[in-house]
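Milestone 3.1: sequence recovery, worked example.
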């Protein structure tokens, strides 16, 4: 089996994976530009611009829509899944990150009375803009591979 055959045989996994990797790479580059430092953890970390979770699930839904039809049950399920993931990224996980920021500040100001083994992770959610950017990236990759390259 050639790479091209493998890639499109498993398109429901390979295309979302490429969208996720691309979003993570962009996030890494944007972080370098913003902070002028290299943080390798940004290659696999959550939070930031664009949302790799959104890129993954929206590309999956788009691949289903193109291959199975936008009226199919598979597309409907994938869109429901994508909606939940994106809502969670911009809602629950973003709020959790804000709470972690407040708790980290509180622990720093207690002068040793309270102790954390390590700081809580603050960058775990997304702004709505980051979620939309990830979703658009996911659509773009699905269209690129399913319509242009295939």
């Amino acid at each position: 089996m050639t790479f091209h055959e493998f890639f499109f045989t498993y398109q429901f996994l390979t295309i979302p994976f490429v969208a996720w990797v691309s979003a993570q790479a962009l996030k890494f580059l944007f972080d370098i530009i913003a902070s002028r430092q290299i943080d390798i953890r940004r290659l696999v970390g959550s939070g930031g611009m664009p949302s790799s979770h959104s890129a993954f699930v929206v590309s999956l839904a788009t691949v289903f829509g193109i291959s199975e039809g936008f009226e199919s049950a598979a597309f409907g399920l994938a869109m429901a899944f994508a909606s939940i993931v994106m809502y969670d990224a911009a809602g629950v996980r973003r709020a959790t990150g804000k709470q972690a920021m407040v708790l980290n500040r509180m622990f720093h100001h207690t002068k040793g009375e309270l102790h954390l083994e390590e700081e809580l992770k603050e960058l775990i959610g997304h702004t709505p803009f980051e979620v939309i950017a990830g979703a658009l990236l996911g659509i773009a990759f699905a269209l690129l591979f399913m319509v242009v390259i295939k």
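DSSP finds six helices and no strands in the chain. Helices lie at 3-9, 11-35, 52-68, 73-90, 92-108, 128-149.
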